[in-house]
Design goal:
By secondary structure, this protein is of the alpha+beta class.
Length: 278
């Protein structure tokens, strides 16, 4: 619904059977006014600055919401926001769904937080693109909007920065040479954490921090998963390879260790896995 040339707001049609994730409302405000919600908003609430800046008060703290930043709040989080530099242009999304708490928790987005991103990031214009798509399309089922919302949360997880933490996209970019190194040397049983840390030129501890931020696991755990993935490619590509030969080709010195690791990760033995593809 068009409110004015500087204010657009759309409410999505509710469903009898709510989607796991859905947009309740989305809008743009070219002249954001003061907002005080002592009891918060009943849905998850995203607010980002398009132009200008505002002060956002939540959880006993005050942050400046300038360009390249946004706030994500869980339901019923008391908050207040006011313009701080003349006219403040904002874009907001409210959303919910039966699986929304699980999805936001899984992505590490369940708590109220300020998120920032680099200029040119996909986050910069994605909300406006969704707003434009909704305004020009009759998505009566809400399915497209649901997909858009999930994509937004993934982008926020990947490109958003909170506190002093860099974004996942930055970490992955820094780790790209090491990922290539792992792919080239997964068959070498002598590769350990020290050798891996030497590729980007950082300490093993810092390396594990980057991997946990990017992939939710340590660097060596990632390397083991890569070896197991490669073993599946070897086994399904050459039915004559023995388990012992496969183990050696993916960096395991001991076949029994390979079998135990494979079973722990995949839930079946290497031989049982191979029968699925015969």
């Amino acid at each position: 619904m068009l409110i004015s040339p500087t204010h657009r707001r759309y409410f999505m049609t509710p469903r009898e059977e709510p989607l796991p994730l859905y947009i309740e409302s989305i809008g743009y405000n070219g002249n954001q006014e003061n907002v005080l919600r002592t009891a918060g908003y009943p849905c998850y609430h995203w607010l980002q600055t398009v132009k200008g800046a505002g002060e956002f008060h939540f959880a006993g703290s005050t942050v400046v919401l300038g360009e390249g930043s946004g706030i994500l709040l869980p339901p019923n989080e008391p908050h207040e926001y006011v313009p701080s530099l003349g006219e403040w242009e904002t874009l907001y999304i409210t959303f919910g769904g039966s699986q929304c708490p699980a999805i936001t928790e899984a992505l590490g987005l369940g708590e109220a937080a300020l998120h920032q991103w680099d200029k040119g990031s996909p986050l910069e214009n994605y909300g406006r693109e969704v707003l434009g798509s909704i305004s020009s399309d009759q998505d009566l089922s809400g399915l497209e909007a649901s997909a858009d919302m999930y994509r937004f949360l993934i982008l926020l997880k990947k490109h958003g920065m909170t506190g002093s933490r860099s974004s996942i996209s930055h970490a992955v970019e820094r780790l790209a040479p090491l990922i290539a190194f792992m792919d080239q040397h997964y068959a070498d049983p002598d590769i350990g954490l020290e050798q891996m840390a030497a590729v980007p030129g950082i300490t093993p501890r810092h390396l594990n921090t980057l991997f946990k931020q990017s992939f939710g696991m340590t660097a060596y755990s990632y390397f083991i998963l890569l070896r197991i993935r490669k073993s599946k490619e070897w086994m399904t590509g050459n039915s004559k390879l023995t388990v012992k030969e496969t183990a050696a080709r993916v960096g395991f010195r001991d076949a029994s260790h390979f079998v135990a690791t494979f079973r722990r990760i995949e839930g079946v033995t290497p031989e049982q896995f191979r029968t699925l593809y015969l």
